[in-house]
Fold this sequence. Notes:
By secondary structure, the chain is α+β, with helices and mostly antiparallel strands. Helices cover 17% and strands 28% of the residues.
Amino acid sequence: MPDRLQLTETAAEGRLGGPSSAYRGAVIDCLKGGHVCRLVMPEHLLHDHSFGAAGTITPLVDLWLNEGRLPRYMRAVPKAKR
């Protein structure tokens, strides 16, 4: 079994004031404390959405890159036009 991929911290204080990390081509920007993080990956359906800690985002990136899909329990809803 290959080694599990790891987040690579790119900044202790990133765009949202907390740590920023890179993971398989995605950027994960977190608020201070690292408990709320945003996925930045334009080709992902959940690009620019916020979630819990970075560890909740990495499986979403893996599933998207490996299988081109979201988890069965998730559905992407288009953002409302203003």
